Amino acid sequence: MNASTQNSVSLAEAERIIEGLARIFVDANGRNYGNGNDTGTEHAQAPDIEARYRTLVEQVPAVIFMIFLDRGISEAYVSPHIEAALGFSQAEWLDDPIRWYRQIHPADKERWNLETAQMVLSGEPLRSVYRIISRAGHVVWFHCEVKMVRTEQGRPWFVHGIAFDISELKKAEEELQKARADLERRVAERTRELGVTNAMLQMEVTERKRMQEDLLHARRELEIRVQERTGELAVANEILQSEMIERKRLEKSLLEISEREKRRIAQDLHDGLGQHLTGIAFLSKVLEQKLSANGSPHRGDADKIAQLVNDAINQTRELAKGLLPVQAEANGLVSALQHLAVDVEELFNVSCVFKGGDAVLIRDVDLATHLYRIAQEAVTNAIKHGHAGEIVIDLEQREHKIILSIRDNGSGFPEMIERKDGMGLRIMNYRANMIGAALEIKKNLMGGTVVVCQLALSCEE
Prior knowledge:
The protein is α+β, with helices and mostly antiparallel strands. Helix content is 61%, strand content 16%. The chain has three domains: 3-165, Beta-Lactamase (2-Layer Sandwich); 183-324; 328-456, Heat Shock Protein 90 (2-Layer Sandwich). It is built from 13 helices and ten strands. The chain has a five-stranded antiparallel sheet with strand order 2-1-5-4-3, with helices on both faces. Strands 6-7-8-10-9 form a five-stranded mixed sheet.
């Protein structure tokens, strides 16, 4: 409930109180006191009536007053709340007949006079808000309700009223008005700020639209250039793909020619030079026997020539074997890897074991040769770079996949693996790509290096 509602409720209650007070002067039979026809008995009851009046009004938290118009000012009444409200006692307030008028704020006196005159002339109640100067000099706002009561004959009898201290309400109204003015000022300032901000925002929106248009135009141009460049790259990519395919074909052809030439040279060494040296060795042996039968001192020279020829035959066989390590047989790879393990042990004095079985059959001699070369290069790297003491070569077939693995216990060769710049590693990767195999080089959990080459077999193989 706000202050205004509380005040209106209090005034309505005050009006009922005043009417009740007025009835005090009317007895149970409806006779009036102070109507000009009073008897001595009636006057004898008046003190009791006044006592009841005072007891009642002193309970009301407002200034209540009553003035008999047919008696002197000395018989007027004002409630004790006058002292709490204005600092004057009842006696001080009533001893000076015009004190109340002097205490009215100068700015409200003329209005108060007009409103009082209107009440007397019309008989209508007076409702007014005015200011009173207290004893201490500060202003007290009052809301006053005044009524004039007449006798049965219509003559003015007495005036009674009640005044509520509404200073706090007025203070709240002033503060509210001040807050409202401050709010209006702040709203006006904010409105101006918003106007400036809106103008700046409009400029920013306009600039942003321009930038968006420029960006859209640039994007369209970029899309056109990207499309053109994409077309150029597509053409270049097709050319590059063709060149790569052709290069791979040529590389494969060169490798096949190289392997074919190696096989031809190996075959020529074995069938040509080897047979020729064998014939020389046989003739040298016959010559030795003849010289020995004749007792010739040159018998030792013939024997030495025979030994040198036999050494040349062995070297020729080794050359042929190096050029053609895998024979054109289904189990040629298995046999070649077995010989590789034996040769490594004899040549480098390290443990080299082959664990593959005869079940792995590869009829394509070129494919088998590539796998052999990968194993040979891995073994060489393990000895040369890893300083391995144990090497295991494993060849197995799982479903439609051949897995060749070379494990060693050496120190590995991480730098070459990371840089991929070793010739041996590049050759192994190249051979794996040529046959469509996957080559993986990694560290062995037990120490050393593991080289794994996995090849998926076609149905024909």
